[in-house]
Amino acid sequence: MLEDKNQERTSLAELGEFGLINHLTKHFKMYHSSTVKGVGDDAAVISASDKETVITTDLLVEGVHFDLSYMPLKHLGYKAVMVNLSDVYAMNADAEQITVSIAVSNRFPLEAIEELYAGIQLACDTYKVDLVGGDTTSSTKGILISITAIGKANKEDIVYRNGAKATDLIVVSGDLGGAYLGLQVLEREKQVFQVNPQNQPDLDKYTYIIERQLKPEARKDIPKLLEELEVKPTSMIDISDGLSSEIMHICTQSKTGCKIYEDKLPLDPQVISTSEEFNMDSTMIALSGGEDYELLFTVSIDDYDKIKGNPNLTVIGHITEENEGMNLVTRANQEIELKAQGWNSFNKE
Amino acid sequence: MLEDKNQERTSLAELGEFGLINHLTKHFKMYHSSTVKGVGDDAAVISASDKETVITTDLLVEGVHFDLSYMPLKHLGYKAVMVNLSDVYAMNADAEQITVSIAVSNRFPLEAIEELYAGIQLACDTYKVDLVGGDTTSSTKGILISITAIGKANKEDIVYRNGAKATDLIVVSGDLGGAYLGLQVLEREKQVFQVNPQNQPDLDKYTYIIERQLKPEARKDIPKLLEELEVKPTSMIDISDGLSSEIMHICTQSKTGCKIYEDKLPLDPQVISTSEEFNMDSTMIALSGGEDYELLFTVSIDDYDKIKGNPNLTVIGHITEENEGMNLVTRANQEIELKAQGWNSFNKE
């Protein structure tokens, strides 16, 4: 798409850095009275508050975290915001502001960066988050996006990774493995396209898992739901690197073990059918496939009645004493030690 | 340096992302009781406060903002923090926390990243700032550093860019142009080295300006000094892109003009002598050379007695009505319109 010579193209050098920031951010709405000053000064200003501030940041690099040959820039902008908001919601906090920095090579025309920001703006509008600052610079290669999200929560509501206790139930929102399988489908179509550019792929039966990869949604609704259910998790984390890796973070920081039950893992029918098509084990995908941006948390067993049967939540196991280890209980009732096969970007090159 | 085969080298892939973050951040001290939770959860947590929060972020890209052939990694880490703290001080606020994200190609061994973090740690210790989060990922080319700084100030103390009024005095801390000329010296030495690697450069007479380039200091002392002098600036900005560009930001946002007096510009003797050596005009360098990280601010003329004679501060002109334009008054008493020749990274490639 970016190589299409008929597109209208405005060079980034024409606008310069200040012009570019103004141009890209001038139509963003501000939703929070806490945003005293947004883009346009040395720093943004956020009003004083009797709530705690949570801050998180993530960096996405072209060729490492995303491939523009199947990731439209608007989706990339949206997803980059989701990745960060997900971390705020995983603290049981609400996100209020973001800053966005991009480094982009001159091969991208202004119109491409506008697409990226259209996705960022859609995310801000959908999730009611204010863009308050950032930086825009050139890169020597490709695009890189660095986002910082700022949220608020009452001190007593914040949930860390280290509060799980033996007998606590392990709960996950939504379903698992879809984003990873969506990526496999897109990678396969890319290879088909390279061999035969005239091929028209029929992706209808993969709609859900492709959307999980290209347009994930952060679970803003879960902290709200938990408040309504009057449940405060004992620990929480978002699933960006795969269930195994995340539950191991909770157990390590809480000094506990865990048992996860294979037959309880929530899988969408498209995940099951596509796993079979790719000759992959759907349990492995649920455990190790990343980028689902669901929330994983633990609750006291006393709260079971409050969460059971909720369509958004699935109990997948329970916390154990540390010396019992971290294990998967298979359908055949065998215990297998969990391994973190989360994604390591340094192995990618 | 990075190509030295005798150095001890540990590959980043061995450690992985989690291992790397832990390894790099475990020796950082926390200075602020406001830092409730630093590195190690989905987000950092900063305690509630009756002060406003200021947030700023900057992105530094290898090959665009710095050249590792003369910028040691430790200095790079230090400078990357300074760039951000400078923006916080320019709000008349104090910096308390930073997050640091880096993207780095596998060609860098762990020991190189440790050097970078040693510089970040030195900056944190010197400026009493807490590292509370970040992200570490691989890049397909070179190093990129994205830092976000978080500061605090009383609501009534915050100084924006838009408060300057006609007759206000224009004041600058320190001296100007050194960082730019330091860069010219380093660029020249790099070219000499490429022709003759055995040449031993004598850089003694450039010590000050090279240090201004390689190890700038953010002016944490100026907000404190102003408080002691009982002066609240009417507007303030830090000088990262050159005096012209910065005073134009103040005037544009304040809807004013200005007069800057050439004979008042504070220049170090090394700036004057090195300008002559390079056949460059020292006034142009003071106006357009970036990266000095001094503070530029305006004060009411009623505050003149409080600041005059202070060795840290120089009055370089005054604010005028908007219709008088933004001008430099030369030594020959001619008025020349100021032009923003600040640095534009998109013109660099």
Automatic annotation (TrEMBL), chains A, B:
GO terms for molecular function: ATP binding; magnesium ion binding; thiamine-phosphate kinase activity. Mg(2+) 2 binds at residues 58, 87. Mg(2+) 5 binds at residue 241. Residues 40-152 form the PurM-like N-terminal domain. InterPro entries: PurM-like_C_sf, PurM-like_N, PurM-like_N_sf, ThiL-like. It catalyses: thiamine phosphate + ATP = thiamine diphosphate + ADP. Mg(2+) 1 binds at residues 57-58, 135. Reaction mechanism of ThiL seems to utilize a direct, inline transfer of the gamma-phosphate of ATP to TMP rather than a phosphorylated enzyme intermediate. PANTHER family: THIAMINE-MONOPHOSPHATE KINASE (PTHR30270). Catalyzes the ATP-dependent phosphorylation of thiamine-monophosphate (TMP) to form thiamine-pyrophosphate (TPP), the active form of vitamin B1. This is Thiamine-monophosphate kinase. It comes from Tenacibaculum larymnensis. The gene is thiL.
